[in-house]
Design a protein that fits this description.
single chain, 2 helices, mainly alpha
Length: 112
């Protein structure tokens, strides 16, 4: 195993990397995609993503991406999130029912 204390360098910010982390592959087992990489005319232009020229070129596309992200969030909320909320509500009801039955059983035992 090779260990180093150097983190490398970058052309963003002050040019140094002060921290990085490694995450095991099994921690990325998502049912849904969580990232999207898009190549646009602005990104293909060669401008740095933090330059004013790039920001000016990407303005028109930004609105499209924002609308797409809202649509994706709505789809997630009406699908995956709604399913999870239903499962949670069902589990809470099951818990409450079992708790009530247990409480009733306990009261009956105390009476005897």
């Amino acid at each position: 195993m090779y260990i180093t204390f150097q983190h490398g360098n970058t052309n963003v910010g002050n040019g140094t990397i002060s921290f990085f982390a490694m995450i095991p592959a099994e921690d990325f087992a998502y049912e849904k995609y969580t990232e999207l990489y898009v190549k646009t005319k602005a990104s293909a232009s060669g401008y740095s993503a933090i330059s004013d020229d790039y920001k000016n070129m990407i303005k028109d596309e930004t609105t499209t991406f924002e609308n797409l992200s809202k649509d994706a969030a709505d789809h997630f909320n009406s699908g995956t999130l709604a399913d999870a909320k239903k499962k949670l509500a069902d589990a809470k009801k099951e818990y409450a029912d079992k708790k009530l039955r247990q409480s009733n059983s306990l009261q009956m035992l105390r009476k005897n």
